Amino acid sequence: MNKPLWGRKPSQFADTEPASTMPMTLPPGGDFDAPTEPMPLSARPTPPRTELSLAPVEAGEYELMAELRKDNRVCPQPTRWLEFFRLLQDHAGRQPLPSPPLTGSAWAATPPSAKRMCFREQAEWAVQNGCVAEACEFLAGLPKSDWLYAD
Predict the structure, then answer these.
(1) Which residues contact 105 (CB under 8 A, 6 or more apart)?
(2) Among 45, 78, 117, 130, which has the highest number of CB atoms less than 10 A from its own CB?
(3) Structural domain spans, the chain
């Protein structure tokens, strides 16, 4: 049952029939098979282009950990690993240091997974003690030959 809406009958409203049921009408003389033409651009003046520059990326925990895992790295070779540890010592102050790097006979006797865990511990220490940028910069500067890779 249709009730009057605010004193009007429903048939007095133009939009009471859903649009999907209304027949579509074509305008007179319309050619709908003609090729389309792009709309002309507005005459607004365009602002002058400025040179874009990238903002410096600050190294964080994510960047440091990505540098550690890049190309399936395990840790730096012993001499470079000692240099990295000296970098941590310089930033330690009175903070206790992480485990020292494996060198000498310990290097030869330790499997790669244990070397990776020791190196990761040092990287986590760098994150916790505010020397992430220096650690990341040092590690990013090492050539491929200065890294031990997992097989």
Answers:
(1) none
(2) 78
(3) 61-149
